[in-house]
Amino acid sequence: MRKDATEAASQRRIQVLLFGVMLSIAVGNTGLQSVLPAVGRMIGFPDAYVALAFSLSALIWAFAAPVWAKHMQPRRARRMVLIGMGGFVASLLLCGAALSAGFLGWLSAGAAFVLFSIGRGLYGSLGAAAPPAAQAMLIAQVPRNQRTVAISLLASAFGLGTIIGPALAPFFVLPVVGLAGPPFIFGTAGLLMMATVRLMLPPGFETGRAVAVSDPVIGYEPTEPSLVERETDGTGVRVAMFDPRIRPWTVCGIASGHAQAISAQTMAFLIIDRLAESPQQAQPLIGMVLMCGAGAALLAQWGVIPRLRLQPPAMVLWGSIMAMLGTLGCAFAQDLHSLAIVFAIASLGFGFLRPGYTAGASLAVSEAEQAVVAGQVTASNGLAFVLGPSIGIGLYQFNQAAPYLVCAALMALMIPYLLRTIGRANDSRD
User: Fold this and answer.
1) Which whole-number Å values give the CA distances from 74 to 12, 20, 209, in the listed order?
2) Model-level pTM?
3) Residue 218 and residue 68: Cα distance in Å, rounded?
4) Phi, psi (rounded to 5 degrees) for 178
5) How many other C-beta atoms can be found within 10 angstroms of the C-beta atom of residue 146?
6) What Cα–Cα distance (Å) separates residue 158 from each residue in 25, 103, 313?
């Protein structure tokens, strides 16, 4: 009995530590993402550079995450978590140094951007080591019938971080460096979390294997668990990304992912320009609107979906409608109250869409194909956040309303497409 209680306590400690790792990464990255448009304007970064820095980071992540996952040794999982945390901390501190040097005039805007991009590259390359190892360690701690709940709880750290990061960032505007202060504070907090992990997390686990996961925060909301136990390795199971069984869900994921990336990446610029505020005065307003969006997405995933027991077709259809209405509203909203409401509506829609198309793809294939389909969903998620930010800023430079009108049109087109393709798939199963 005492042994069982000790093991249970150890498992809870591990789960809390892993939750803390994911939370600190999400808080730091979304906090940086919320202040970067304002501080970039103050330094003299072209708006396109801000999008490019995050796109490059996501692209590096897309290549690095599969490499880390493939070479992870279960007995050394803690080492991978520490490598990922080290990359995250180094990235934030280097980004903070770059922004501070540009803000104080020690570096030109171009040189500060190069240094900032190197910092983001560290996160994309080394930070990608932490999530696969953390989720694999979690899988090894819980029985199979409890894994979905446990991994969902771990993924919720990402969503919670998207609220906490923008909320705290305005309080960490420091003397001398101003808006460049939050990366230093979040980096220091990450360093403390890293020391805690080193002291308290066991070195690894006995079984299980990770698959690559997408960047946990650049897409704002957490995805459905994108790491599964690979029991089909070596079987030669293959499912193409546009296999007819999952094609509607893949198309939905790519379209909604791009709409989400475009609308989220341009929102801070829209607040600065449309509310006619200076970048520093606009920062608390940016944090407020982003918090409303993140809270709405979590409301969908933590409250509405479980209580109403919605199925994937209903989730993607209602999500598309709400995302269409919300992004259309963003194109025309002129005050803070309106922007917060319409961005929350759009985020609520995206909060339905992501778990909807993830679950829909999973239910469309056999048990042996689950791991392969999880990889395809991850790939479609990552693709959106490589291209979406740059597309969004390009449209924004053409016209402030253009990114949101394009997103609304994209989601409007998804509604008849999903009605036709999902209905056909249901009829064929009947």
Assistant:
1) 19, 20, 7
2) 0.75
3) 19
4) 60, -125
5) 10
6) 8, 30, 25
283-299 pLDDT tens trace: 888 888 888 888 888 78
- CA neighbor of 406 nearest in space, from 253, 248, 262: 262
- 202 exposure class (CB count in 10 Å sphere: 0-12, 13-18, 19+): middle
Q: What is the pLDDT of residues 48-91, one digit of tens each?
A: 888 888 788 888 887 787 777 677 676 777 888 899 999 999 99
For residues 202 and 224, what is the distance between their CA atoms, to the nearest angstrom?
Answer: 26
Is the CB of residue 207 less than 8 Å from the CB of residue 230? no
